[in-house]
Amino acid sequence: MSNASDADTLAAIDLGSNSFHMIVGRQQNEQLQVIDRLREPVRLAAGLTDKHRLTPEVAQRALECLERFGQRIRDLPPESVRAVGTNTLRRIPSGDGFLDAAQRALGHSIEVISGIEEARLVYLGVAHSLPDPGGRRLVVDIGGGSTEIIIGENFEPVRLESLYMGCVSMSQKFFPDGDIQKGAMKNAILAARLELQSCKYPFRALGWRMATGSSGTIRTVRDVVKEMGWSDNGISAESLKQLRSALVQAGHADRLAFSSLSDDRKPVFAGGVAILSAVFHALKVERMLCSSGALREGLLYDLLGRIQHHDIRESTVQSLAQRYHVDFEQAQRVKEAAFVLVEKLAGDWQLRLDDARQWLHWAAMLHEIGLVIAHSQYHKHGAYVLEHSDLPGFSLRDQRLLSVLVRCHRRKFRKLIIDTLPESMRENTIRLCLVLRLAVLLRRNRSSDPLPGIDVATGSGSIALTFHDDWLQQHPLTQADLKIERKYLKNVGIRLEYR
After folding, report:
1. Which of 74, 171, 185, 258 is the least buried, fewest Cβ under 10 Å from its Cβ?
2. Which residue range forms the structural domain that includes residue 33?
3. Element spanning 243, H or E
4. Shared domain check, 88 and 196
5. 81 shares its domain with 144
6. Using one digit for the tens of pLDDT, what is the confidence trace for 62-89?
7. Is-contact 221 235, C-beta < 8 A?
8. Model-level pTM?
């Protein structure tokens, strides 16, 4: 691999429920050249207990894998690496401690993403890996704990679905200890068809010109049916039927003798075949081709887009602002005030100014979205909407951060809410909330008058505002607001001074 300190090097890590993947690429003329790939069959989902905790053996196996991955990307800057966890990490309680240990092992931050965000990234990886067929494309990705189904056109998804079934969970439930019986295969397919029931008609109504599979399970199915001479062009419905019969005839995962089927995939193969069979039946797929691109490639292209200022998160925020009829002029006024304040405070608070501006911009754009529900407690309504919506581009942690900023921009400043974030984020979140609160206060009159000149100083648990030219004495309403704000901040141990 090339020198990891190369500024053009990017890395994406996919912490899946069956395998951990890492892909490293280099930017060349705004394109990506893959220079390294790593995969390890961690089987994370298989180690999840009934209480959603990982067994010590599986947790240790995962951490050792991440330490090896971390050695390859140790020298890359944080903005050049994106690591995400999917279904199994979504199920582990946030206070479990595993995620913190995983981040230490990798040496980089790990985001846990929603199933819909996973589907979006899968589609992005597939769309960049295959020629555009013209018209719509169906993409199916069968992971260890979830299955993503997408219809998209060009590089844009049209409909996204994430279903709570995967090759590991399905194999554990219907093919325990590797036994593959005819009745179990029938029941597994039926269970998968029930999961597909709610989305099959909308997907079939949209239609597509090409069906594509992107997971390791689907690629292995393609390789096996080709090896056996059942299909020489992707996976046909007939070849999938022949494969099911061969699995049942073998009777046990250990007796599967396909050279295309690796030993580490044998225990979960029958579950994956059952899910794929249900997808073929429910969506009336006759033939499915395969893509080399998947979630990790989508991560790389999404990361490249952020670097090149084509960030899907900005599109998400703008779309939300339009949907909830935001007063864009007021949002801009609040943003500008927040930028003035944070530029004066970033040095003392050791904030990364670009990151702080980005979050303050998004929070300013969305802080009033709750008004479309009700004026009373609108900050709570807005926070609820943000926490429980599908926000393309945002991890669950970052979605929670955005919700907290909106929730805490006015009225009582509840540190208890901020304490729901990871400990490493809390101090900076309090500071961003403080800046946003002051910006909203200074622009409460919704006037386009220039912002007054302000000096800002910070001390131990305090912030002092000095207004130029006796401006504050000429604006008694702002004085009254600051007096109230002083009481709110005192409750969280912050002294607000102003003159």
Report:
1. 74
2. 9-113+299-304
3. helix 237-250
4. no
5. no
6. 999 999 999 999 899 999 999 999 999 9
7. yes
8. 0.91
